[in-house]
Amino acid sequence: MDAREWDEKYSEKPLLWSADPNQFVAEEVSRLRPGKALDLACGEGRNAVWMAEQGWDVTGIDFSGVAINRARGMAMERGVEVRFVDADIFEWEPRHAFDLVLVAYVHFPDPDRTRMMEKARSWVAPGGHLLLIGHDVATLGVSGPPDPEVLWDPETAKRHAGDLEVVFAESRPRETDTGETALDTVMLARRPE
Q1: Residue ranges of domains in the chain
Q2: Can you point out the beta strands (E) in 3-122?
Q3: Rounded to two decimals, what is the model's pTM?
């Protein structure tokens, strides 16, 4: 989907996703020392705002202007400062590296997935982490996009870690809004200092 289609999707209701952080973001980020974080394709900002509440200096980027405006509103309502950038991740370049780059539920087919992960890895500072969370191909049809080519699995995630050290890459169960159990691929990788 392009930016216009995402704008339309976000315009369908006041909040497309939950205002709470993703459970795996909360679990894994809570174990890390706060620093500079980038939330790639941040959507309405739930993870970025939560990380800012935990003491992170956060930048969130998304190409949907509707989502970015909602994210800014959420940050304002919750009294935290987050830099939200309305831009395409393939065209944007940050001014500095990050202690944490979060890629949560970003699903592209190749070659775009490879390009995205190359960019994400390049933005991880020495000693920093890349946290990837995505719909797992093992639960195709339960949660996430219906195209298996854009879904994740631990081995695919590891391949995209490139020069980073994989701390772990695994499939984890998550309860969906409908009460079903879905699997998500969760990978944490680190750039050596």
Answers
A1: 3-8+15-190
A2: 36-40, 57-62, 83-86, 98-104
A3: 0.90
